[in-house]
Amino acid sequence: MRSRFFGSGVYLIGCAGKVVYIGQSVEIDKRSFESLGAIYHQVSDTSLPWSIAYAPCSADERDERESAAIRSLAPEFNTSIPSETKSQMRMPDIAGVAPIFIDQQKPCGAFDPDNMAAQMRAAAAMEADPDQRPTWKPKKTRRVTPPRRRPVPVNEYIPAPWAKVDSDEIVRQRGTPIDGELPFRINLCTDGSVVTRDGDVIGTWQVDADGFPSFYPEGATEPLLFHPFMPVLCDDIAEWYERESGETIST
Fold first, then answer.
1. Backbone torsions φ then ψ of 135, nearest 5 degrees
2. pLDDT tier at 85, thresholds 50, 70, 90
3. Which long-range contacts (CB under 8 A, 24 or more apart) does 115-123 make?
4. Quick one: 42 exposed, middle or buried, by C-beta within 10 A (0-12, 13-18, 19+)?
């Protein structure tokens, strides 16, 4: 199987169910493991699962996307929160997620859409109430010698086998019932169709091996739009449809 390599971009380090650090580099494969080494011993439970997500992007996008991700997720080990002006809220586009240790059966839950959405809500609540915002300084904990857990070399990362049947099952679990009310401007339905509130079928949707959804216009064989969070993807689809069709979806 083909290994995956990344160069310039943003990386996100997850521990258990949360993103705990976000950084950027011209060599995100290498730099992400250097950052992991700096924060690993600051978590007292060394048995927790860890993962790294990679979001390749050009040099002129790195600052903006890193800042947007830090501001949106407020990771524990990032020492400051960027200004709203700097972040512009254009999030990194995650291209791959890899478990860090050989003994992990799969990546940790930090990059599950529901967990990321919950972390974003918590970060927004802290931003709205500065008294609740932590100081964002690294924990001062006793250095603990971790168990002998061999990291997965980055160049050995191989995506988990993924079949369309797996995608279809997640679509059935997360979609809006096709035979019921269409409550949203854009509805990602249980049969894999994408339907407007007015009942117009405008394409299909699938999820990848990390559970992230993509939109395919009618007749397309390649995805047009992607986002880790379904509500954001639906907003993007609505904007695309209204722009392309010249019609306004009822609200």
1. -80, -15
2. low
3. 115/17, 115/18, 116/19, 116/73, 116/228, 116/229, 117/229, 119/18, 119/19, 119/73, 119/74, 120/72, 120/73, 122/74, 123/71, 123/72, 123/73, 123/74
4. middle
Taking Cα atoms as reference points, which of 15, 34, 129, 130 lies closest to residue 75? Answer: 15
Q: Which two tokens stand for residue 84?
A: 């709203």
Write b or e for each residue in 175-189: b if 16 or more Cβ atoms lie within 10 A of its Cβ, otherwise e.
bbeeeeebebbbbbb
Q: pLDDT tens, 7-48?
A: 789 999 999 999 999 999 988 878 888 888 888 888 888 788
pTM of the model: 0.54
Note the Cα 43 to chain centre separation in Å.
22
Sheet hosting strand 18-25, strand order edge to edge: 18-25, 9-15, 50-56, 96-99
